[in-house]
Amino acid sequence: MSTDDYSVTELHQQLSLLQTLDVGVLVLDREYRIMLWNQFMENHSSLLYKEVYEKNVFDRFPELPVQWFKHKVDSVFLLKNRSFITWEQRPYLFKFKSYRPITGLAPVMYQNVTLIPLASPSGRIEQVAILIYDVTDAALSRKGLESANQQLRTLSETDQLTGLYNRGFWESRLKDEFARYARSLTTSALIMLDIDHFKKVNDQYGHLAGDAVLKNLAYILREATRATDYVGRYGGEEFGLLLIGTTARKAQNVVDRIQELISEARVSVDEHVITYTVSMGLTEVHPIFQTHEQWIKMADQALYLSKENGRNKMTLLVPES
Question: For a tag on the chain, would you pick the N or C end, based on fewer CB atoms within 10 A?
Answer without folding.
Answer: C
